[in-house]
């Protein structure tokens, strides 16, 4: 994920916040992922045994 804001970095308008609006499908868990709201890093937060990597 990449984001760019052309506002002056010293202003509140330049602040970026990340969030997951919706996960679809919501199975095996509606909260399988976490996103760091400041950096945008996305990680899985459920057991690896529940993930189908195919």
TrEMBL record:
GO terms for cellular component: membrane. Keywords: Calcium, Membrane. One of its GO terms (biological process) is homophilic cell adhesion via plasma membrane adhesion molecules. The keyword Membrane applies. It is found in: Membrane. GO terms for molecular function: calcium ion binding. CDD domains: Cadherin_repeat. InterPro entries: Cadherin-like_dom, Cadherin-like_sf. Residues 1-54 form the Cadherin domain. This is Cadherin-13.
């Amino acid at each position: 994920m990449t984001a760019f804001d052309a506002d002056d970095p010293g202003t509140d308008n330049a602040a970026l916040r990340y969030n997951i609006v919706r996960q679809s499908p919501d199975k095996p868990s509606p909260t399988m992922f976490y996103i760091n709201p400041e950096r945008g890093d996305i990680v899985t937060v459920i057991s690896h045994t529940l993930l189908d990597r195919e």
